[in-house]
Design goal:
This protein is an alpha+beta fold. It is built from seven helices and 19 strands.
Length: 287
């Protein structure tokens, strides 16, 4: 009996910040360099298409021409999607996902699927099975033996993505990262320790009682691997905010107490959308 393919249509998600995912706005900064391949070249595309047995669509390649794979700032609703794989010799690459090895575990064909994100159980795939020239995008769950078409094209898939800003907090009334560090050291009496790309403060005796801050301006990429491809220069975590914006992060259990201490000191923690929409007179120091 032939397998019925369900079509799952997501409604395009539009952030209050009105930031649409494009090849230029898509990529997360700082880039995790081991996931980024060397800049895309025509011969790399040709070799990948020969290996995969298909012609990759221009809207997908246009994304990789800006950055050849890596973590992205957006995600589909209710999904753990977090990257778009590029083309290269190491994981993650669209040439290193081997879905065909799982053919025996599902009752639908995996031939014609090119995965660009996934964790071994589920994948987002360019789906060439119905149209060899104009692939749709499908969600495939190997563990649950299910598949869903979620977009007619890769461009339509990008329109479904929403900005991942749920847990991002901005400190108001500080002029820059150095000012924030000085104010917080005075409040908590503890030295901030540098990380990549964060500064961490131990605010109590318990090792878990700590928080992190980072400025909006960071290195374009970071890596623990000495041979990784390196971006030069800096980038903004959130290009929509001022380079001097300062972000705050802590465990949920301690957040309320930190918020109260900061408020008493004339500082506030606001979410990204509130920071973006704050009146100019109240955000002039940090936007």
């Amino acid at each position: 009996m032939p397998t019925l393919r369900r079509i799952l249509k997501y409604t395009p998600a539009y952030s209050i910040m009105k930031i649409k995912p494009t090849p230029e706005t898509l990529w997360k900064r700082p880039a995790y360099l081991p996931y980024v391949h060397l800049p895309l070249a025509d011969e790399v595309i040709t070799h990948a298409e020969k290996h995969l047995g298909c012609t990759l669509p221009d809207d997908f390649l246009n994304v990789l021409r800006v950055q050849n794979g890596g973590a992205i700032r957006f995600r589909t609703p209710n999904s753990s999607s977090e990257l778009i794989a590029g083309i290269g010799p190491t994981f993650p690459s669209i040439t290193t996902f081997y879905l065909k090895d799982s053919e025996e575990y599902v009752d639908f064909s995996l031939d014609g699927l090119v995965a660009f994100d996934g964790d071994g159980h589920w994948y987002h795939c360019l789906d060439f099975r119905s149209d060899a020239k104009n692939p749709s995008v499908s969600y495939v769950d190997l563990e649950c033996n299910s598949e869903h078409q979620i977009a007619d094209t890769f461009s339509s898939f990008l329109e479904l993505l929403e900005l991942d800003i749920k847990n991002e907090l901005v400190i108001t009334n500080v002029s820059n990262l150095d000012d924030a560090r000085s104010r917080l050291q005075e409040l908590f009496g503890s030295q901030l320790q540098q990380g990549v790309p964060y500064w961490m403060c131990h605010a109590g005796k318990n090792r878990n009682d700590c928080f992190w801050i980072t400025g909006n301006k960071v290195a374009r990429g970071y890596s623990g691997e000495p041979d990784s491809f390196r971006f030069e220069g800096n980038a903004l975590l959130f290009p929509e905010l001022s380079p001097d914006a300062v972000f705050f992060e802590s465990s949920v259990g301690h957040l309320d107490s930190y918020r109260a201490i900061l408020r008493d000191a004339g500082l506030e923690l606001v979410d990204i959308e509130s920071a973006w929409h704050a009146p100019k007179k109240s955000q002039s120091r940090w936007r």
